[in-house]
Amino acid sequence: MTLTVALQSHGPIPLDLSFRVAPGELLALVGPSGAGKTTALRAIAGLMTPETGRVTAGDAVWLDTSAGVNLPPYRRHLGVVFQSYALFPHLTALGNVLTAMQVPDRIEAQRLLDLVNLQGLANRRPSDLSGGQQQRVALARTLARRPKALLLDEPFSAVDRATRDGLQAEIIALRAHLNMPVVLVTHDLNEAQMLADRMLVIDAGRMIREGTTAEVMADAAALRTLGVREVAALLPAVIVAHEDDGLTRLDTATGPIFLPRIDAPIGTRLRVRIMAHEVILSRDRPVGLSAQNILPATVRSVVPGDGPAVTLHLALGPDEILARITRRAAADLALVPGDPVHVILKTMSVARDHIGRAG
Amino acid sequence: MDWTALTLSLWLAFWTVAILLPVSVLAGRGLAYTNFRGKGLVEAAVMLPLVLPPTVLGYYLLVGFGANSSLGNLWQGIFGHPLAFSFEGLVLASVLFNLPFAIQPAQRGFEAIPVALREAAACCGLSPWRALWAVDLPLAWPGLLTAMVLTFAHTLGEFGIVLMVGGSIPDETKTIAIAIYDRVQAFDTDDARVMAATLVAISFVTIAATYWLSARLGKRLT
Fold this sequence. Notes:
The complex is a heterodimer of chains A (359) and B (222). With 359 residues, chain A is of the alpha+beta class. Chain A is built from nine helices and 21 strands. Chain A has two domains: 3-77 and 147-230, 3-Layer(aba) Sandwich (Rossmann fold), CATH 3.40.50.300; 233-357, CATH 2.40.50.100. In chain A, 22% of the residues lie in helices and 36% in strands. Chain B is mostly helical and 222 residues long. Chain B is 81% helix and 0% strand. Chain B has eleven helices and no strands. Chain B has helices at 3-33, 39-51, 54-65, 70-79, 87-97, 99-111, 115-123, 128-157, 160-166, 176-185, 189-221. The N and C termini of chain B lie far apart (45 Å). The A-B interface holds A 45-47, 72-74, 77-80, 82, 84, 86-90, 99-100, 102, 127, 141-142, 144-145 and B 114, 116-117, 119-128, 131, 134-135, 138-139, 220-222.
């Protein structure tokens, strides 16, 4: 069931967007605040009507302004998880989930609560639940409707970082069960990169860049319109050992790296977000260096930008990471595609929330 | 003590509340959730009975459903007795006169529900009718309760409009407030004292019970 969206509005918040999301795919809408991300989501949900537009989910037409079709939200089979949770305060967790069912089914509602790890909390009211627990209830309530598409509006921005890591892991785990299109609105590029298959960068309601997450996150020009220089890649890795000195040893395609202790069992497959500007390159394998993580790689391409920096795409076996160095350094090293090179990563440069479980 | 008048007053209050409860749910919810041109005018019209002297409203009501009006004639044709100076006419007047007491608190009750919750209800697949029962009413309860208690107590105490459109017909339009007036006019202060005290007690207990109940409901909801 593919979700197709085309929205145009002049004001008050301009919109000119068109995209499709395949079943099982997670698309992240990213952009600065005020870019129209949430407005686009609200238009898909039917909470606002654009001047012209068309929204379909499989065969179902939810909005078609040219044909005069505009279904109210309750007749669009989708689920929305809001930033503010928006749980019904007078109902228990179970009651919230039951309310969203066309035919209330206690066993199914309990199963959904179990699915989001809320065992034993079914009879608590929202006021007796933590932020993360409330957002889990909201997620279960959303699934109770058996939606054809899932919309997530900044779902993790109101919870603390530890809770956010847990919730993100849950979304990654849930996606295996959900064969539906998912649209995630976020201003957090790290979150988008960790969760999304594809990204849509929007500004002032218009699409600036669309592509796979790896493509968009490697595009320094597109990211600059967001006001960030966070070019980054995801490096797959597997936990192989927890060392006595507090570091965790991971295997990548071309060698081991050490990161600050990661609380996950040996064998866990991870994706580590490597910020391109944290990467140091060396033609020869360096000796006498404090950095512990030195991985052999091959230059795939050198992409010059507008500014003083260039972005290098580097192959680590089948994987790719990015390095952002100055033009001057690139000229000194005279790197061209096919050249072998050594990638140097500082252990402490990887932020805790830049490490996520692989889906 | 005029028990007939007290019973009549209680019945009048009961019917006024019974009619205004669904009216205030629909009108209060409608005013709370929608914006339309002329909304301010509608709200002002609802509040008008609060500031008008009962004589003005009573005058228009007598003109509106008196023997020479089309409504009065229609009523006479169907039920065989005039609408003015009847219990039914009194109920109609009471309903109109209590509109601000019923609709205003109900509207505030619905307005207190966060927009995000209403949107969440719609996005959970709840039709407006299902949302009313599952979300709106459980959350707007305190406002509706206030509305109905104010209406009930206010009807018991209403004097001017009852005199204007009801006259003082025993067992038909002579409410306890009118009966007290009659007794005082007849220098029967003993009877007036008993009835006045009874009215004070009933009104006080009703309103006190509401405060107690709202506090309990409020505690349960937060």
